[in-house]
Design brief:
Layout: E1 3-9, H1 13-24, E2 29-33, H2 41-44, H3 65-70, H4 80-93, E3 100-102, E4 106-112, E5 117-122, E6 127-135, E7 157-160, E8 175-179, H5 183-195, E9 198-203, E10 209-211, H6 219-227, H7 229-236, H8 257-270, H9 286-303, H10 307-313, E11 326-328, H11 331-334, E12 340-344, E13 350-353, E14 357-360, E15 363-366, E16 369-372, H12 381-384, E17 387-389, H13 396-399, E18 418-420, H14 433-453, E19 458-461, H15 463-478, H16 508-520, E20 526-529
The structure holds NADP nicotinamide-adenine-dinucleotide phosphate.
């Protein structure tokens, strides 16, 4: 049976970086991924218009200055093929392929208390043993296909955005239906509309979206931006969202209406998530949030020509950003095209999928292609997709039956030598996730180094430390508006999933300080033993 120091599940941003970093510590590492290539989310999400909504210069590794300088991002926000090419380049450049096994699904992993090793089993029936198991499985990697009556009977093609055929789908001259109006749909719809005969958007909940103002980066600008890497990265490590801009310092209620509008407008013109950081109370005070929500709704009205249609596209039933705000390129403008139609499922209730298309509000929409941009079983789906068993054979599925429990989003009590990268109750999806991945990889590698230097064999979160962290994360969350939305942050998009705020909302800077304190106190809250 192959024996290795570390098994890493997942060959995306996290898995590739882990492999490189753990090798540096002299460890043997095996990275396993179900996909046919590296890239994780960027391997799977090939739908038309897929691109990152974090700027390229931030959504990239910071651990190689040479890589930073050599790689030339071509757009402010990179498209999926470019990010995938970047990750493949990383795998080539750092000689990673030889320790990566693709097309293999990890089915189970159990901790053997007598040997203090993980036994990992794959769908090929292969077994591996490892001292450490690191789940680098991503926060948004298990697609959610809703239970739409009749879906199986649809005679056309139906594809989830996160399982888009690699050969592409030619929609030219065809009628396309899209379920969903989250980040994936918002990117896909304008691109689909350029070639499809018709795009019918089935909207259940309208989305807040602002322009990213994506554009090509010319060589002179890119050169200038590359010089700013050290400052950008340093700032991103201390700010709330892990972004390279300063956090807010004042309440929205301390400024005049004119000053407030100017602040919102300036940030809207820059584009993207910088709008979130305009004032300190946008996510904690419903009235403050409503001011920003009103501002964005007005912008939507300015982008959609038909005033009635604009009203139907304006979100009203949750505070802005308690469902992740979307960053778009021409989303609302797409509805000005004659070939794009909105079907508001609140007014025209969904009835069923038929062989010919979709029935809603008493009307049948005849379609050739159905796009399911219906999201993910976020943050816990991939972890619970593997039958992980810790001390006493207890399964993670049992341990999390009432909701995810972790210490710092990195470890789970009762599961020694298991680490989760950007796990539940860490900032993860509320941050620039590449920065959060790098932080977790550094933490995990340093913990393993620490153990090896001292001849220790197991590290495990204590139940007491885990309870304290959960209570702290819950308290911070309850002080915000996030629990008010039925979002995937709350697990609310998956029927039967326990409702809890899955990411830690205390901010990247605060979280990093807490992790540093834990390490400085000799891995406080972890039990280390020989
Ligand atoms: P999502 O935000 O969860 O959106 C899913 C959409 O599908 C929602 O509009 C939802 O409506 C709708 N939906 C689900 N079930 C439905 C049903 N039975 N009938 C009608 N509508 C249904 O998923 P996503 O757009 O894939 O985005 C998920 C996350 O992935 C994002 O928030 C972001 O973090 C990440 N992402 C990032 C990028 C990027 O970097 N640009 C791109 C894509 C995704 P309800 O709101 O009513 O549930």
């Amino acid at each position: 049976m192959p024996v290795t120091d570390v098994v890493v599940v997942g060959a995306g941003f996290a898995g590739l970086h882990l492999l490189r970093r753990l090798r540096e510590s002299g460890l043997t590492v095996r990275v396993l991924d179900e996909a046919g290539g590296v890239g994780g989310t960027w391997y799977w999400n090939r739908y038309p218009g897929a691109r990152c909504d974090v700027e390229s210069l931030s959504y990239s590794y910071s651990w190689s200055k040479e890589l930073e300088q050599d790689w030339n991002w071509t757009e402010r926000y990179a498209a999926q093929p470019e990010i995938l090419a970047y990750l493949e380049h990383v795998a080539d450049r750092f000689d990673l392929w030889r320790d990566i096994e693709l097309g293999v699904r990890v089915e189970s992993a159990s901790f053997d208390e007598t040997t203090a090793r993980w036994l990992v089993r794959t769908d090929r029936g292969d077994d591996l043993t490892a001292s450490f198991l690191v789940m680098a499985t991503g926060c948004l990697s298990v697609p959610r296909i809703p239970d739409l009556p009749g879906l199986d009977e649809f005679a056309g093609e139906a594809h989830h955005t996160a399982r888009w055929p690699h050969e592409g789908v030619d929609v030219s001259g065809r009628r396309v239906g899209v379920f969903g109006t989250g980040s994936s749909a918002i990117q896909a719809i304008p691109t689909l509309a350029e070639s499809a005969a018709q795009v019918v958007v089935f909207q259940r909940t309208a989305a807040f979206s602002v322009p990213g103002w994506n554009r090509p980066l010319d060589p002179a600008e890119l050169a200038l931006l590359k010089k700013s890497y050290p400052e950008r990265r340093a700032m991103a490590r201390v700010t709330e969202g892990g972004n390279p801009w300063p956090g807010a310092t004042r309440s929205v209620f301390t400024v005049s209406a004119a000053e407030r509008e100017r602040e919102f407008e300036d940030r809207y013109r820059i584009g993207g998530f910088i709008l979130h950081s305009a004032f300190t109370d946008l996510f904690t005070d419903a009235d403050a949030n409503e001011l920003l929500s009103d501002f964005v709704r007005d912008k939507i009205r300015g982008r959609v020509e038909d005033p009635n249609l604009a009203e139907r596209l304006c979100p009203r039933d949750y505070p802005l950003a308690t469902k992740r705000m979307c960053i778009d390129t021409g989303y609302f403008e797409a509805f000005n095209r004659p070939n794009v139609r909105l079907v508001d499922l609140r007014g025209a209730a969904f009835e069923r999928v038929t062989t010919a298309g979709v029935r809603a509000g008493g009307e049948e929409f005849v379609l050739d292609v159905l796009v399911l941009a219906t999201g993910f079983d976020a943050m816990t789906g991939a972890l619970l997709g593997v039958d992980i068993r810790g001390r006493g054979g207890r399964s993670l599925r049992d341990a999390w039956a009432g909701g995810a429990t972790t210490y710092l989003g990195l470890a789970v009590a009762g599961f020694p030598n298991l680490f989760t990268v950007t796990g539940p109750l860490s900032p993860s999806v509320l941050s620039n996730v590449v920065g959060s991945i790098e932080h977790h990889v550094a933490f995990i590698a340093a913990a393993i180094d620490h153990m090896r230097e001292r001849g220790l064999t197991t590290i495990e979160a204590t139940a007491a430390a885990q309870e304290r962290w959960i209570a702290h994360a819950r308290e911070v969350g309850e002080g915000t508006l996030y629990p008010r939305a039925d979002s995937w942050y709350m697990g609310a998009n998956v029927p039967g999933k326990p409702r809890m705020l899955l990411p830690y909302v205390g901010g990247v800077g605060t979280y990093r300080k807490e992790c540093d304190r834990v390490v400085a106190a000799g891995y406080e809250g972890f039990k280390l033993s020989a």
